[in-house]
Amino acid sequence: MSIIVKNLTHIYNEGMPFASKALDDISFEIKDQDFVGLIGHTGSGKSTLIQHLNGILKPHAGKIYINDFDITDPTLNLTDIRKRVGVVFQYPEYQLFEETIEKDIAFGPSNLGLEVEEINSRVKTSMAAVGLDYEAFKDKSPFELSGGQKRRVAIAGVIAMNPEVLILDEPTAGLDPGGRDEIFELIKKLHKEKNMTIILSSHSMDDMAKLAKTLIVMNHGKIEFMGSPREVFNSNISRLKEIGLDIPQVLELTMKLRDKGFDIREDVLTLDEVKEEILRIMRGRKKC
Ligand SMILES: Nc1ncnc2c1ncn2[C@@H]1O[C@H](COP(=O)(O)OP(=O)(O)OP(=O)(O)O)[C@@H](O)[C@H]1O
Ligand SMILES: [Mg+2]
């Protein structure tokens, strides 16, 4: 599913003394099956943007087209869009409420008015997709689970709607490193195996450099950069720092190595690439 955002503006508390422009005339396009990392400092507008993409928030100006449907058109029935664009909000485990995991995951598909067999089949498939064994977990209370497992249940609930686009707002916030890796692995798998378009906001630059195909960098409600992680990170280090973002650790390392006189290529972004560069330079030095 392609998404086109045109001149989108959102103002909270418009007309009030404390009004704030959270999105300021932003435009971009996301292609079908892309994996988009949304990054930016706290308050830059990531969550506000995410909430526009399935119609939860309405823009003050601008348009959003999803597969040519203008979802800002007030006459459009948003139910169809919400089936196709699934959003996992920040700390989604707070929205778990049913007494069993099975019932919680079945909640969304049940609201679509599907047949019972179809609902059961979707619950099983989405539990398998997030790596939760159906028999072992179906009757457990969501509240018995670890943080990472609860988040898997919440993601399974959205996957059970069979969305073509999966949007996740800081899906690893508050998890320990193990839980964080598990969730990122899961999202990578969903992108690859189910061909879902993924839009993911995160403060983890290292993970975004590894996972995303496209990065959107937000700054005070505007798009500062958009491009591949290599284009965004490798060419704009000082600007990214200026707007309050970390840069991937690999780039910190290459900067330090350059300061020490190592002639590291400008386009390296992964640890393997740095390793190759260091070996190349050392081989060159041995020959001298
Ligand atoms: N419900 C709201 N009412 C008023 N202002 C809001 C509301 N939600 C967000 N804002 C303001 O809008 C701006 C954008 O906030 P948003 O939550 O979209 O940023 P964010 O990039 O998601 O930040 P974070 O990284 O902390 O999640 C901020 O200035 C914020 O204070
Ligand atoms: Mg946010």
UniProtKB/TrEMBL annotation:
Transmembrane segments: none annotated. It comes from Romboutsia lituseburensis DSM 797. This is Energy-coupling factor transporter ATP-binding protein EcfA2. Residues 3-245 form the ABC transporter domain. Its main location: membrane. It is a peripheral membrane protein. GO terms for cellular component: ATP-binding cassette (ABC) transporter complex. Keywords: ATP-binding, Cell membrane, Membrane, Nucleotide-binding, Translocase, Transport. Its EC number is 7.-.-.-.
